[in-house]
Design a protein that fits this description.
The complex is a heterodimer of chains A (123) and B (839).
Chain A (H helix, E strand, L loop, with lengths): L2 H18 L2 H15 L6 H23 L1 H10 L5 H40 L1
Chain B lengths: L9 H20 L8 H5 L10 H6 L4 E4 L6 E6 L4 E4 L3 H27 L4 H4 L4 H10 L1 H15 L1 H19 L8 H6 L8 H16 L3 H8 L5 H7 L46 H7 L6 E7 L10 E9 L7 E7 L2 E7 L8 E4 L2 E7 L5 E5 L2 E2 L6 E4 L2 E4 L1 E9 L2 E10 L5 E8 L5 E10 L7 H10 L3 H8 L7 E7 L4 E6 L3 E3 L8 E2 L7 E4 L7 E3 L5 E4 L23 H14 L6 H6 L7 H15 L5 H10 L11 H18 L13 H9 L18 H22 L9 H4 L2 E3 L10 E4 L15 E3 L2 E7 L2 E7 L17 H5 L4 E2 L13 E9 L2
Parallel strand pairs in B: 1-31, 3-6, 10-21
Antiparallel strand pairs in B: 2-3, 2-31, 4-5, 4-24, 5-27, 5-28, 6-7, 7-8, 8-9, 9-18, 10-17, 11-12, 12-13, 14-15, 16-17, 18-19, 19-23, 20-22, 25-26, 28-29, 29-30
Helix pairs in contact in B: 4-8, 4-10, 7-8, 7-10, 14-15, 18-19, 18-21, 18-22, 20-22
The chains are: A mainly alpha (123), B alpha+beta (839).
Chain lengths: 123, 839
């Protein structure tokens, strides 16, 4: 499978779990699937963060628009001018958490690989 | 996050990524001050998005198997969002009412009882500690425990109904997952606490306090340092000689009580040497501030005087406007009962409503049922002794543990005397400088156990005015003016309640707690209470004014000292106009609820104009004054003249008294009394006191205030970039309906309303008709209309949170969907939940 396709699959998985499960369960599950789909690369983190942020923003905007009364009330409570600001802010926070969780797992994978390589060189 | 860069050890990068991730994860999981854990709160599956309209429906599925029921219960929710609870026995009916109320108002129920019992610190932390301490000292929790015991021992049926109601609430709570909790729980990071019968009683105590509690005695006692008792009577008449009372001599049907044994003559109001510094802190000031606008209207016209031949009853209780509304509309049906109306969330039964045979409505009687006694303590003993009847008596001390969120619990001690709890301590200024603290015991009828649950149970099932009269014989608190009607055409009124007879007669001042002569002697019996049954004139009404023209025997004083009698006068005048020559219509009696005629303006404006016209320099001001003379004297939301007049009057009123009655330590003569004095031709009536302006100075004061008023209003318009030079009343005054916990965004502001405290439509900036209801019969079938400024649901995301506000604002009423027989029609049903009795 091409890299971009795998990236989109990962993002779709993040969105799905985030919509259905408590946030920490969604983060753990998406992190768990990360090693099978993503690789640690120079531009990987920034690109994934951006894509995830954009996708989550659209998702949150959709949620907020379909639950307007409560979205407006909570936005006013948080002194935000419009519920779209709340959508973007919350998308930003969660995109960062998901991307960092994925990155953390990729670093672990990378460490294991490095260690294995070192051991095999010694042998 | 480059792997290949490799200049720094990759271990640092791993740790950096992990560190940021963990930090963010922790920040999303913990509460930061008042900010809830944002992860859970913002998450679509568990957070506030779950408190959406669809989620509200989901929380009430079509079929639920629940424990605690004998037979199945059906809750049909109509298209207005109002539940109709149908059961096969009284206990299951109470269960269903508890379930439906919790479904819609769980957070409100929790907060209100937490406030009454002094447990807000458990939710909000230390900032609520002062409030909680005060609530504990006022003794609500202790009184509720006594009342619950009283019910358990004296009325097993009502006790079981409270238990069934609580089971219904708890059954709903147990059906919730954290994701379903009302949004306020999510904001506070708490979960619903199980409901108990004690909480029902606590809520009852809270209502009694809202409607009868006050700290006026301290302010009146302070005023005695400036004025004699006679002068006080002139400035603050206990009974007014003007305005229409509830009952005139032609309609009153009570026997006069034979009063009052003079005692040993030692009873007297207490004079304290020094100023009681009351209401000093912001919190205390809020609690100790009287709300003279707490009031209501009700009237009933018999069937002879209506075009369709049946009585018409109207009621609109005025209370602080909040979201969710204080009232919860519901229909309750079981064998022997089919009643519709409004309940209080947390209490079983219907409080104001109707069934197919009778209807009833209430206003607050306002009779003074609270006295404060200055106590003398010997604190050298473990349980402090207090001096009473020339000897020392031991007090009891109740330890109150106040739990505080995030902090260790703190314990306060509440000293109890035979008069009541020592609920207040005020600093008393000393001549030598400094101050001493004086303890005061509170005697309050709300502390005495009573059984209003039985009264409303009987009213809900009554078939005639006579049955309602019988039910009200045991009614105690809070004292209420009940009007009632039945299908056969009878009407009635009684000022029901437990009112004390004081030997001294001085209920408005602080009393000496060492003298037994100052104690309450007895209660006024039911037969002596103001009442009237199917009078010849064909109508009855009340609007918190004094019950009778002459002092009602036994009544010391009441809220009517401060609440405007003009509202009642206007209602009385209109009812006479509507019924005297021809029968009246239902719509005319409905329209009366929206009447905004200002009788004070009618009386005073000509005089003010006369005083002012010659003193104005500016032509524009003169033109405005002239146009004010052509005003229809109605406080319409769109009227600029209403804004000018009201602001002008307020400024004059404050100017007249500001030197004599400064700040919060003193009462201020009522606006009605000020009006009477201003209108009086007799110079002797004007208080000749050094700090009150002389009568000759009044025209200049009134004119200066007119100019000041116009300046204020012009600046307001400029500030708001209004096209009009002067703002309309609805824009200038506006009405807000805040959330119960004042959460911004959860309430409404700047609603454009007409009326004011003295008009029949008594809407003010934060207060007003909390439930408007009109009931009659057509072809022997009950027909009713109603509305309240809110909605059935307490969930901010629900379309039923505020669905009635627009109708309320327009002064309209919804037709109430009373189900006479069978179930609510499918076309009128939004959802139906069947609670199945689990084996």
């Amino acid at each position: 499978m091409r890299h971009t396709m795998r990236e989109f699959l990962w993002i779709a998985f993040c969105l799905l779990t985030f919509s259905l499960l408590p946030w920490w369960q969604a983060v753990i599950l998406s992190a768990a699937i990360t090693p099978f789909l993503l690789r640690l690369t120079e531009i990987g983190f920034k690109r994934r963060l951006l894509l995830l942020f954009l996708s989550l923003s659209i998702l949150m905007l959709g949620f907020h628009a379909s639950h307007k009364p409560v979205s407006i009330a909570v936005s006013k409570l948080l002194k935000l001018p419009h519920y779209s600001v709340l959508s973007v802010l919350s998308a930003g926070v969660f995109a960062l958490v998901f991307a960092l969780a994925a990155e953390t797992v990729l670093w672990v994978k990378y460490s294991f690989r490095k260690t294995r390589e070192k051991l095999s060189t010694k042998n | 996050m480059s792997v290949s860069a490799g200049k720094r050890p990759y271990l640092m990068r791993i740790l950096g990524t992990w560190g940021v991730f963990l930090l963010l994860a922790v920040l999303l999981s913990v509460r930061l001050g008042t900010i809830p854990p944002l992860g859970a709160f913002l998450s679509p599956s568990t957070g506030y998005l779950n408190n959406s309209p669809s989620a509200t429906k989901k929380s009430s599925p079509a079929l639920m198997s629940v424990k605690g029921l004998k037979k199945d219960v059906t809750i049909s929710t109509d298209i207005r969002g109002v539940p109709h609870v149908s059961a096969e026995n009284d206990l299951d009916l109470a269960f269903g009412q508890g379930f439906a109320t919790a479904r819609d108002r769980l957070w409100q129920m929790e907060l209100q009882t937490a406030a009454t019992s002094g447990r807000v610190s458990e939710l909000l932390g230390e900032r609520a500690f002062e409030f909680d301490s005060k609530q504990r000292r006022l003794g609500f929790l202790a009184a509720a425990e006594v009342e619950l015991d009283f019910l358990k021992n004296n009325d097993k049926e009502q006790f079981e109904i409270l238990e069934a109601y609580s089971s219904g609430v708890n059954s709903y709570i147990s059906s919730l997952s954290p994701a379903d909790f009302p949004i306020e729980y999510k904001l506070l990071g708490t979960s619903p606490e199980p409901w108990t019968p004690l909480k029902c009683v606590l809520f009852h105590k809270q209502m009694i306090w809202i409607l009868t509690g006050n700290f006026d005695d301290f302010k009146f006692t302070n005023a005695l340092q400036k004025f004699t008792v006679g002068e006080m009577e002139n400035l603050f008449p206990e009974f007014y000689s003007q305005g229409l009372p509830i009952l005139d001599a032609s309609v009153a049907n009570m026997s006069l009580i034979s009063l009052i044994e003079a005692g040993d003559g030692s009873a007297a109001p207490m004079r304290l040497d020094g100023l009681l510094r009351i209401g000093e802190s912001a919190q205390a000031s809020k609690q100790e501030q009287r709300k003279p606008s707490n009031g209501s209207n009700n009237w009933v016209v018999d069937g002879v005087r209506t075009t369709h031949g049946y009585p018409v009853l109207a009621n609109d209780p005025h209370l602080d406007l909040k979201l969710p509304s204080i009232w919860y509309e519901v229909q309750l049906t079981a064998p022997g009962v089919n009643v519709y109306g409004v309940s209080l969330p947390g209490l079983p039964h219907i409080i104001i409503g109707f069934n197919d045979s009778v209807s009833w409505g209430i206003t607050n009687s306002g009779v003074d049922v609270i006295d404060w006694y200055a106590m003398k303590f010997d604190k050298t003993k473990p349980n402090p002794n207090y001096f009473y009847a020339q000897q020392w008596k031991p007090s009891t001390v109740r330890k109150e543990v106040i739990r505080i969120k995030g902090k260790p619990a703190r314990t306060i001690e509440v000293t109890q005397t035979h008069l009541g709890p020592v609920a207040q301590e005020f600093a008393l200024d000393q001549k030598s400088g400094g101050s001493v603290t004086v303890p005061f015991a509170m005697k309050w009828s709300g502390h005495m156990p009573s059984n209003e649950f039985r009264v409303f149970h009987s009213l809900n099932r009554a078939r005639s005015v006579q049955e309602m009269k019988n039910a009200l014989k045991t009614y105690q608190a809070p004292g209420q003016n009940f009007v009632m009607a039945d299908k056969t055409g009878s009407i009635g009124f009684v000022q029901a309640g437990r009112y004390p007879i004081r030997t001294s007669g001085f209920g408005r001042y602080v009393l000496d707690g060492t003298n037994p002569a100052n104690e309450w002697q007895d209660d006024i019996g039911f037969g002596h209470l103001p009442q009237s049954w199917s009078p010849d004139r064909g109508y009855l009404f009340s609007a918190n004014q004094q019950p009778t023209r002459d002092p009602t025997p036994g009544f010391a004083s009441g809220d009517w000292v401060f609440t405007s009698y003009l509202r009642g006068t206007r209602i009385g005048q209109r009812l006479a106009e509507l019924t005297t020559t021809n029968p009246t219509t239902i719509s005319a009696l409905m329209d009366l609820q929206n009447d905004v005629v200002d009788l004070r303006a009618k009386a005073l404006l000509p005089l003010f104009s006369q005083w002012t016209s010659g003193l104005l320099k500016n032509k524009e001001d003169k033109d405005i004054l002239e146009s004010l003379g052509k005003w229809n004297m109605q406080l319409d939301a769109t009227s600029e003249h209403a804004t000018i007049w009201n602001t002008w009057w307020e400024n004059v009123y404050n100017s007249v008294w500001e030197k004599s009655f400064p700040k919060q330590h003193f009462p201020k003569p009522s606006e009605d009394r000020t009006m009477e004095l201003l209108l009086s031709d007799k110079l002797a009536d004007w208080p000749v006191l050094p700090s009150v302006p002389a009568k000759s100075e009044l025209p200049a004061i009134v004119a200066a205030n007119f100019e000041r008023t116009l300046q204020t209003l012009r600046s307001f318009s400029k500030r708001n970039r209004s096209q009009n030079q002067l703002p309309a009343w609805g824009k200038y005054r506006g009405t807000k309906i805040p959330h119960l916990a004042n959460l911004p965004g959860f309430g409404f502001e700047h609603l454009e309303t007409g009326g004011d405290g003295l008009t029949v439509n008594a809407t003010t900036d934060h207060h007003g008709p909390s439930w408007r209801m009109v009931v009659t019969w057509v072809d022997a079938q009950p027909k009713a209309w109603g509305v309240y400024p809110g909605g059935p649901s307490g969930h901010v995301g629900s379309p039923y949170y505020s669905n009635m506000i627009d109708t309320w604002l327009k002064g309209k009423l919804d037709e109430l969907l009373f189900v006479q027989q069978g179930q609510l029609k499918d076309s009128l049903t939004m959802s139906r939940t069947k609670l199945e009795a689990a084996p």
